[in-house]
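The protein record filed below.
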Amino acid sequence: MMIKMDIYYVEDDEDIAQAVKEYLAPWGYRVSVFPTVAGARQALESRVPALVLVDWNMPDGNGDALCRWIRSYRRELPVIFLTVRDDSRDMVSGFQDGADDYVVKPFELDVLLSRIRALLRRTGDVSGQYLSCDAISLDRNRMQVLYGSEEIGLSPVEYELLLLLLQNKGKTVTREKLLERIWDRNGNYVNDNTLTVTMKRLREKLHQPVCLKTVRSVGYRMEDSE
């Protein structure tokens, strides 16, 4: 069974977007199309794909603004710019802002596929590096936690608690499992109240997120609110 890799395509031309989406699907790429930069950024705040294709000219701004945002908050996420030839000079400056490659329109679909494959061979699928739920995102490589664009400072125990819940997003994690995985594995037995206090501090630091739910008398669950 072929494993699908997610690609976000920021493109306002429906015909081009649909052609790319249909062409890449049999090769194992699941393409989500976003007709605005704002829509793409909102999606990237809650879920990270394997790669992003960005059209240079968008209705609500140039693609370089989105690329700079990606480099600030999703640094390893690979980006390919797509541009018409007349915009290529301006696009080169955007390329220097952090895009990994660019393709000039009109392009052959097999050429785009080869560029995507080549880039992913270099970078690998970084989507698993980033975990998120609503406005909360966690970068496993940097051990960095963000609420929107705000960096949140967590203690090691708070970080481990959030990581475990995000790794099990959509599932209820029992209090017993949390105590065992975070505290008891190091031989540091603690009572049940320690988890309650740690969770209270974590919620306060994350601005009382609605996506972090208590399952009464059982444990906790993280799930996107939309």
Q: What stands out?
A: The CA atoms of residues 62 and 196 lie 46 Å apart. The longest strand covers residues 5-10. The first helix runs from residue 14 to 24.
